[in-house]
Every structure is written in structure tokens, then in C-alpha cells.
Amino acid sequence: MDALTITLSILGGFVALIAGGELLVRGASNLAAAFKVPPLIIGLTVVAIGTSAPEMAVSVQSCYVGKTDLAVGNVVGSNLSNLLFILGAAALVGPLAVSKQLFRLDIPVMIVAAMLLYALGMDGSLSRGEGITLAILTVLYLSWTIVEGKRDAKHLEDELEDIMPSDEAGKAIGSNLALVAVGLVLLIGGANYLVDGCVKLATAWGVSELVVGLTIVAIGTSLPELVISVLASLRGKRDLAVGNVVGSNILNVLAVLGVSAAVAPEGVNVHAQSLRFDIPLMVAVSVACFPIFLSGKQVSRVEGCGMLLYYLAYLAWLVYSFVVVKQPPGYGSLVGFLVPLAVAMVLLAATRRRADGESPPAA
User: Fold this and answer.
1) Among 137, 159, 192, 254, which residue's Cβ finds the most Cβ atoms within 10 Å?
2) Is residue 250 within 8 Å of 110, Cβ to Cβ?
3) In this structure, which long-range contacts are made by residues 200-205, counting pairs with CB atoms below 8 Å and at least 24 apart in sequence?
4) Is the distance from CB of 50 to CB of 28 less than 8 angstroms?
């Protein structure tokens, strides 16, 4: 396969994934609205599942053809991209609000899911049984989200109005089912082209499928989250931007890897490289986001800029390690990334305490 064919395969796969995800979200959202499902629940379930659909399609297809490194790299890379690149970009548009429900449930679940992936992967694989367990946890999480969402539905009723206009709810059920069907076809077809192109690209560049999954595939499959989060920020629905990313990260680990491990003939291989660097970094970034979110209950533009710079440094280090020195980053590199992250968190906490101490008392 020549360079032009590989490029067209990857680009075509990306376009099909994004279009398929959009149609799937739109059709499912309209169906939910037509059946009087509260808007908040639509956002916490349909939108989160829809924006994780590209990761699901790519990871399941990768596992089905035996390329499990690409599946793990896709999920871990997407989660890092969501927290650093997408939230950073959305925060530059405008400071992002963080709702109380995210603190009560979703952010802790995101952190626990990241830690669970590391714990389950320490033996070098995710077995079918572990995949089924993760899938069951997905159902429990979504069920609890629906219960919690009903309590706050009245307060947040307009949250998704600009993203998914309610006047579309009256569309014929048949046309919305057609949107869902076409979206699924595009997702499956796009995943086939993307996986095939990325495997050929990894072979041509002489790098592992894990690296391609952590970078090109991860950024590409995170585009739906980027579109929704930036759009939400532009339209003033800035807590939706954070909720979209957090919910997607949870589903990427629990649902995407769970289903992938369940369908893979021999489970999902968790590469030693991921355990030494990428997954621990994902855990650390997930934990580090909690004080960022907690600081003023928002993500400021300065914090967003810091997230973007950190993500660019991560990508640059991956390229340097695998392309220039041709040696995967190890524990030393991990420490090099965690030290500045810890320092940044301490400085942020100190700055917030000082600002709180200097702020005038409430009247």
C-alpha cells in the first residue's frame, strides 16, 4: 500500500467516524426527546456514548483483527487528549464551569476507572472475564447517572438545548432510526479503513501500533468530543463541556475496553510500554484534574493553556522517544512528567488559597 493510499484510507476513516458519530448522536437524541426523556439524561448517556462511539468502533475492530495494542493505545491516548487537549482548547474559548454532580459521582468514577485499568492490566492483558466485568460496570454507572440526572433534570433542563435543539424532537421516528442506522454503518466502515491505514502506517514508519494509537488515532477519534466541548463553551454551556469529557473518559475505559476485551479471542494485550508510562500518566492526569476542577469550580483560561502545553510536551516526547532515539519512554520519563505536574498542582493550590484569603468577605 503506497503513501497516498494509506493517507486516503486514514483520512476517509476519520471523516466516516466523525460523520457517523454525529448522525448517531443526532438520531438517538431526537428519538429520546420524542419519547420525553429529560434533556440532561440525553446528555449524560446518549451524547457520552455517541462521542465514544469512534473509540468503540476502532478498538473493537482492532481487537477483532488481532491488533489489540492499537485498541489500548486508542483509549489511553484519547483519554489524555480529552483531559489535556480538548478541555484546554475549550477553556481558552471561555472558563469552564464544573457542576456539583460531576464532583459527587463522575470525576471520582473517572479516576477509579483509570486506576482499575492499570490494576487489571498489570498481568499484561485484559481477559474476557475482566472485559465483561468492565461492561457490567458501564451499565451500573449509566443507571446511576440516570437516577442522579432525574434529580437535577429540572435545574439543568436547557443544558443541551443549543447542542441538540428540541424542535427536532418532532421528526418522524422512522427518519431518526435511519440516522442511527447510517451512523452505525459509517462508524463500522470508517473504523475498518482507519485501522487498516494505521496498521500500514505503523509498518511504514517502523513504529509500534501502540504509538499510532496513542497519537494519530487518539486525536482523530477524540474529534467529536472536541466539537461538542468547544461548541458548548462558545454557546455558554460550559459545564456541559467538562461533563462531556469526563463521561467520555469513563466510557472509554469501562465500555470501550470492556467490549473490546469481551470480543477479542484471547483478550486485550496491555503492552509493557503502556504500564511503564502511558497508563500511569493517564491516572496521574485524571487525579491532577480534580484540584483543577475544584479550584473555583472551574477551569480557567490559564489552566487551559497549561493543559495544552502539557499535552504538546507529551506528544513531542513520544515522537522524540520512538522516532529519534528509537527507545520507548520508561519510568524515568514518567517521573519527568509527574514532577512538573505535581509542582503545578501545588502552585495552583497556593494561588487559590492566596486569592481566597485576599478576597473581601461576602456582604
Assistant:
1) 254
2) yes
3) 200/1, 200/6, 200/9, 201/6, 201/10, 204/3, 204/6, 205/323
4) yes
Per-residue pLDDT, 62: 80
* Residue-wise pLDDT tens digits, 273-329: 888 888 999 999 999 888 777 765 778 888 888 889 889 888 888 878 877 777 777
Please state, rounded to an integer, the average pLDDT across all residues of the chain: 77
Cα separation, 161 vs 39, in Å, equals: 8
Exposed / middle / buried, residue 356 (Cβ in 10 Å: 0-12, 13-18, 19+):
exposed
Please say whether the beta carbons of 134 and 252 come within 8 A.
Answer: no
Which residue in the block uniquely carries the three cell numbers 461492561? 135
Whole-number Å distance between alpha carbons of 322 and 84: 21
pTM: 0.78
Cell for 203? 509498518
Give the DSSP H/E element, type plus range, for residue 148.
helix 128-152
CB 160 within 8 A of CB 47: yes
Return the bridge partners of 97, or none: 298
Dihedral sign of CA atoms 320, 324, 328, 329 in order: negative
Neighbours of 214 (CB within 10 A): 30
- 25-77 residue pLDDT tens: 677 667 666 766 554 456 556 666 776 777 787 788 788 777 777 788 889 98
Residue 160 — very low, low, confident or very high, per pLDDT cuts 50/70/90? very low
Task: Render the burial of 84-99: b for 16+ CB within 10 Å, e for the rest.
Answer: bbbbbbbbbbbbbbbb
Q: Which of 81, 13, 9, 107 is nearest to 281 (CA)?
A: 81
Residue found under cell 426523556: 37
